[in-house]
Amino acid sequence: MKLLIKTGDINKLDVDALIVFAWENDLSVFSKFNTAMATYLKEAGTHEEFEGKEGQFLTTSSKGMISAYKLIITGLGKKDNFDIYEIYKNIALSLRKAKEFKPVKVALIPSEYWLEKYPVRKIYKIMVEASYLANYRFSKYKSEASLMKLRTVEELIMYTHPGRITGAELGMKEGLVVSEAVCFSRDLINEPACVTTPEYLSKVALSESKNSKNNTKVNIIEFDEIKKLGMGAFLGVARGSEEPPKFIRLQYKPKNSKKKIVLIGKGITFDTGGLSLKPVEYMETMKLDMAGAACVLAIFNALNQLSVSVEVVGLIAACENMPSGRALKPGDILTAMNGKTIEVLNTDAEGRLTIADAISFAVQKEKPDEIIDIATLTGACRVALGEEIAGIWGNDTKMVDLLVESGKNSGEKVWKMPLEKEYKELIKSSIADVRNIQIGRFGGAISAALFLAEFVSDISWAHLDIAGPAYAEKDTSLSEKGGVGFGVRLLLQYLTTK
Fold first, then answer.
1. Any binding-site annotation on 16?
2. Core-most of 88, 140, 347, 371, by most CB within 10 Å?
3. What domains does the chain contain, in order, with CATH numbers?
């Protein structure tokens, strides 16, 4: 999608669809247009009972009174409790509404209230991201006939006043970098598991190191070296598959960096559950179990372009979780890289095993200031928080609070969860240091976080469980059905503020 910023008379914006926004019981936006168009909009609004309520749209032909062919007025509701997430959502919904008319060129005029409340740069960054993500389509495997039916906008014009051009252009550039990273993540998640193998992820990582824009070094650690490192938990999960495991390390190190942050992405490229086999209906979308890895890989495409000033290391323990004669069995004991022994009582609680070794590697080899892991870890978190909100745990309150705030500022919802020490009893094993699944049915997401905490040592650490928002079961405002790319915006927001 081509992006442009324009100034001048909005009545002369020559586009297929022009989008503006109205607040509840405040239709003063009509006065932005010439007298004839404004009068017509008032009449149409009265006829359609349009009051600017949230979710209302007033859609009409301009009837030649302005240059735009279609005019879409989006109701925003009341200004109370309006936040950044609502801006993302309403821009995305507006673009989806416009796409019903198969437009090629669309223009957006932001609400003046947004520009009063937030910096110009921020609003235009959001405009780009919301529009870009709402316009995304994964069409790689569509036939020519199917492609013709897909509705995508080819050109987006963002209107601004002359005095705001600099901020708008900066926001547009930043928003484009972030949007492309999110879409890169979505593409990886949406690929079938027969394509996105551990080997494929390692090749994607290596291709990033060859891109001069990325300033990224990549090292792929193969089976023999993984074994020498003592990553028994990771290899325990991997041994059921014909696909060899890969431990992927990415490094971005700008000059004069004073802080080092490790990002760990869960990289289970397909999860059958192993011998603790999932029901068929739960297995259909399990290509998504590498969404954390996709997030980390996408972030490394953007770090240099966003001039992130801290050193960032990405770690991905990539493998499949498959049943076979060699597969991990319930009751087996594994030894992680840090020497802890793990009683495996459910082979479908495999992600925490691979992440445990990745965390141990980070602690022993990287010695970072912070560790953040992001994973589609537990169905329990999805049950607790639904399909739009990620859970976050951590041992550093300030760090966790900053990540939650980064979620608010990037339009990604995160809810702070308890790292309840009393629940550690639930992951105690009678024959090993720890068990990989809690005793009983309850507290599954918390006990999974507590399990990971066993490997962290005294380093500041946060755990993001994205099992809910990583994959959309149906179209939403910002995403079509499929991979969402959740976490990319949040973590880039966090890293750019460090």
1. no
2. 371
3. 2-162 (3.40.220.10), 183-496 (3.40.630.10)
